[in-house]
Design a protein that fits this description.
alpha+beta; Rossmann fold; 8-stranded mixed sheet; about 15% helix; globular
Amino acid sequence: MSLPTRHLLAVFLLMTSPLAAFADEASPVLNPDAAKPPETAMHPKTVGLHGDKIDDPYFWLRDKANPAVLDHLKAENTYTAAVMEPFKSFEDGVYKEMLGRIKQADTSAPYLQRGYWLYQRTEEGKQYPILCRKKGTLEAPEEIVLDVNKLAEGQKFMALGTFEYNDENTLLAYSTDINGHRDYDFHLKNLVTGEEIQTPVGKVAEIAWATGRTLFFATEDESKRHDKVWRYTVGDNTPTLVYEEKDELFDVGVGRTLDDQYMMIGSESKRTTEFLCAPASQPKAGFRVIAPRRNEIEYYPEHRGDLFYIRTNDGAKEFRVVVAPEASPDPGNWHEFLPARPGVKIEDFQPYAKHAVVTTRENALTKFQVYDFATRETKSIPLPEAAYDANADHNAEFETAVFRFNYQSPVTPPSIYDYDIASGKQTLLKQTEVQGGYDPARYTVERVEAPAADGTKIPLDIIRRKDVAVDGKAPCWLYGYGSYGISIDPSFSSTRLSLLERGVIYAIAHIRGGGELGEAWHEGGRMMTKKNTFTDFVACADYLADHQYTTHDKMVIEGGSAGGLLIGATLNLRPDLCKAAVLAVPFVDVLNTMSDPSLPLTTSEYIEWGNPNNKDEYTYIKSYSPYDNLKPASYPDILVLTSLNDSQVPYWEPAKYTAKLRTLKTDHNPLLFKINLDAGHGGASGRFDRLHEVAFEYTFGLAALGLAK
């Protein structure tokens, strides 16, 4: 079950042709005087808690219905376009480079589920995937289940949410978002006739089938908190409410165990969980609690045979696995199955009929172990490189002899493997083809450790072309996130090649607040230790300069969403840290947002950022909130990106930030703001539209570095 956060997954990474080719040429630079920036009228509003009075002159930008607000946002776009106009042909060239690396007509690795081979494919020139299946064998005729390109006709935005087949493979339940606000509409398709079935179900957050023609779905309240679970049987006039989560710190979700035996309702805060179960074959049976919620105790159940296998942090900060009888799974009946190990976090436990897969994180890297229930032996799956990203892929069959996983690294394209449990043999099923003559041997990846201010060692991945010397002359692009315990693993990006081929070194900072080194790493950068996230990032930037990878005046820094908060806070701490900065959908108005419980995600995230109703936590948030700590100073070139329909970080946060910074900064460097008026938190939905956005971002950064030609 996936719940929303102010999180932007690692952005696409990009651009081509060696740096030496234009080392001695004059290069155009960003010219903020190419147009006049928009003037913003001030309408101060007094905000603050605990007797603290703050005049917020740009509070009025929150009024989306005010025509003056839309005029202001359009003026920002016009100004940005004027400043970037000299680089338009370069940007178009970068887009063509990136597009040229993509195999436009491609097919995913098929996986087996209930007698059908399922896969997606894309077609030349089309933005969206086509969902397909074949019955029984891969030689069977193809059946197009859902063509997202057709769903997108007439829409400016189209995102496919969840899609779930019923057990008989005759019905497909799926959801779509047409504005980027993550308001997903429910659809039900008859796969026998191809017709859409009209239902009374409206907006949904999650979908899970029970047996027969009954499904469960979650919905959300006005603040976008997932708060209710409903049951619906095809043909009924109305859904039935089966669970409501009233605690505003918790979100609720619904799913089904790997063996298909139980429906699960999960209530999760950022630090506590509670699960309820009911037999999937008896969808109208009542749900019962597996273990009552206890503060700061997380547990995640799966089922096999007559046992629940439960991953939990009860008595183990980095988690352990216990078993409990399905008839009485309360904590008094928990028995140790896999004990905790120092320095190793158990991130997932997937039990199948004859084996289980244990996903762990150790030394900031994911590892897989396979446990054989018959022999009680454990084998590790070898993963070859020093820095990589590995995840379980589609493992839809409970009775299986293989484990499928996705493996990639900064130099290895996404690769799908089947691991044979008995023999230990790995079979490569598919590797994403990078067109245009990509040669991984041209690049190198290093993992180093940057010392933080308190002596903590911060993992730092560094990717470069092998012939780019480490002599302080190369430009560098540094990315960071550092929130929610989310790990930013070093993955592959074909778009990033356009940077590397221009001699740019790319680096990923694994700062505290993330999950790269387990729960303690998250603890070290949340709540009242949040500032460690920012100082860790500064330490990584300084390390790159001190060790001759680059210099601060040749560095671009970037982060998105909560990573945009990172960049905003870092710029206030060290405006001299870089030549340019990119803040994507940035969570920069932290104090105001966290003080307004009516906004999406706010109350459930008190446990990540702090509750401003608590004076000490209010004061701490205020001390780093980027918007509230802008000051008269010389800031670098800055690009701020957002979308009008963003439900995770409202557009007005970056809009206010940009308007206020313009009145304070003492330099003449460009400050650009660009808003997608038809998208949400993740930007454009079409794959080609997204490439255009990435090409723009990197054109800005390369122009700031004098390399955009």
